[in-house]
Amino acid sequence: MGSVVDSSNKANGSALANKKVTVIFVLGGPGSGKGTQCANIVQHFGYTHLSAGDLLRAEMKSGSENGEMIQNMIKEGKIVPSEVTIKLLEKAMLDNGNDKFLIDGFPRNEENRAAFEAVTGIEPEFVLFFDCSEEEMQKRLLGRNQGREDDNIETIKKRFKVYMESSLPVIEYYNAKGKVRKIDAAKPVEEVFEAVKACFTPVAAS
Ligand code: UDP
Ligand code: MG
Asked: Where ATP is bound, by residue (predicted)?
């Protein structure tokens, strides 16, 4: 049943409307392995990885007028206003020649989700959800030592709270639409990637 009007990417005034892109949201708690597995997906399946957190940190370091605000939000584990994050994601997609993107760590709340959809007209192909216990995530965050200002126990607790209260509902929203592919992310990296691969490999027609 094909629709007469192509309703994908029906953005209002977004330059992205003219660029047909495939987007997969990669979600899961802090330390669930999103970044690690995205690097693997890039290698195997040719997607471009856009980490919302990395884009915000780069924006912060670039000396932008929002730099101080972003730094404060990240330090408190709070969610940066949608407008800021969406602009960075839009620009990254427009500046890149690729047409398939992994958006990692976004949307983080319902408002992020609704605003992204409204502004870009993009709906994700599916949502890759890394499911992991808080205990395991905390262990990883405290052990990774990447010099991040938010990988201390105080901020980690705040990030977990925001994740439970604000981000899980986004995953539930997409789950209700049948779009979530859930991965047991507590296993070793190689095993997790085996499960990830299965999500990207089309099932052979029978
Ligand atoms: N952040 C945000 N909006 C986003 C993504 C990240 O506000 O869409 C902020 C938020 O303060 C978050 C921090 O950046 O706690 C780190 O996010 P990142 O995704 O890098 O970390 P992760 O939770 O994946 O370890
Ligand atoms: Mg990350």
From this structure: 31-36, 144, 187
